[in-house]
Specification:
Number of domains: 1
Radius of gyration: 14 Å
Largest sheet: none
CATH class: Mainly Alpha
Oligomer: single chain
CATH topology: 434 Repressor (Amino-terminal Domain)
Number of helices: 6
Strand content: under 5%
Length: 107
């Protein structure tokens, strides 16, 4: 990845966080994707292969998903696998009360 692409990604993340008014989370990112595509919870859940209630619980922060599932959903949706895995891992750390930041890059 070139430095220019890295800068654009950083600018995009900054923009998303400014719009949301807080750091980007997996649940917020997923909800933004769904809303941006104009899909209902039910239709989006069907696309991801889960129930409407399960997706609602994820978007509300009542459930988390594994990095493996985050990767799968990224591929289904056509979004950044690295970012979705990073956000899923970050959520796990936050739930554990660990004040750490996750950084993920493709091997």
């Amino acid at each position: 990845m070139t430095e220019k692409k890295k800068a654009k990604k950083s600018e995009a993340m900054t923009f998303l966080e400014d719009v949301m008014g807080s750091p980007l989370t997996f649940r917020g990112y997923l909800a933004a994707i769904r809303q941006g595509e104009g899909m209902t919870l039910e239709a989006f859940a069907k696309k991801l292969g889960v129930s409407r209630q399960h997706l609602c619980d994820i978007e509300k922060g009542r459930r988390r998903i594994s990095p493996d599932r985050a990767s799968k959903w990224a591929r289904i949706l056509g979004y950044s696998e690295t970012l979705m895995v990073q956000l899923a891992l970050q959520h796990m750390l936050e739930e554990a009360g660990l004040k750490m930041k996750v950084s993920v890059k493709a091997a």
